[in-house]
Predict the structure.
Amino acid sequence: MDGQQIIKLFYTSGITILRDVYDCSPHDLAGGLMSLNTARKYTRLATVFFGPADSPKVQRDAVALAEARQLSVEYLEMVNKHAKKLNTRGAAWKLRAELIAHKGTLDEVNEYGKQRVTEEGCDKQKQRGVRVGRAIDGLRTISITDTQRKITDLEKTLDAAITDDDQPRSEALLEPFWDLVEGNGTGLIKPEYRTVIAIGLEDYAKVSCGKGEDVVVALSDGTTMTGAEFINAAMEGALGDKLYVGLFHPTAGPVNLYETRFASDKLRTLAMAENLVCPWPDCNVPADRCQVHHIDAHKHGGHTKPSNLTMLCKYHNGVNNDDPDGQRNKRRPGKPKRGKPNRGRIRRHRGKVRLQTPGGKLVGNTHHVSSMGAMNLI
Ligand SMILES: [Zn+2]
């Protein structure tokens, strides 16, 4: 059996594995093969699927279906992660059965599971507060949880005081932080939304006539605000004296921005409104801290026009493969690659900015603010 066949067998035998693991002690199972923690993970999961349950019939049927569908241990673990958050009698097994029967890839069912737990109202809300950790190796950590507005304003204040651009961000923020605490700065920056706000025409109409309680708009600093907060900000003059209107075409992408003076500023603002966070999958750097990126590289004749521009964070701008047909493919086969590995490149597909992986898959960023960018509003 080759490596791929072994992986396939492992990933289609979840129930078979758990059934045999159920009678095992984690110490016997570990047996020098795996860590005791991993072994405990298996035996705990096996107990869920084969141990006593409050809904034995649902449990039996769900296990039979999971075996027929050849689900993996990883899949069953994901199912259990969601289901165990439900506390009322029978609810957890009902959800396990539902997720085992749900059609889709593991990632799709995972998203669906999250959504179902939220619907059942069992999501633990984060609590606002200041948490202080214990000392480890002479260092301690403090973490602050508060509204996205407050923390983002603090972040912007510290960002503005960074003096050395080459330092890692976390280190660079430290000195401005202590300056602020010790009262050496000018206090928190008052939010002024030079930041870009993306809002669809229909929502804008609703918000303008005071009916926007259910409208949530997203900002290029990575936060969101309700329609009411948007109107308040406009009344307080925090939106600036001009309202910028970006025009987006459903398949061509950004088209034009009205009411600005500088061409470069205008293009940058349009690009920010399009995605609001870096469009690289799983990235969460807000557009305010991103760099303008030419989708077709300038050196290959790419134009500085709206549809060829997007915002990428410094890191992803660096790893993007600007030379898809260049040096990389000309290398002699068998010769080890030098330099950075190919991570794929950003391109525009049907109007939207996507990562094209080296294997040819087109993947978008599913960050919640990114999915509220201008191109998703039309
Ligand atoms: Zn990024």
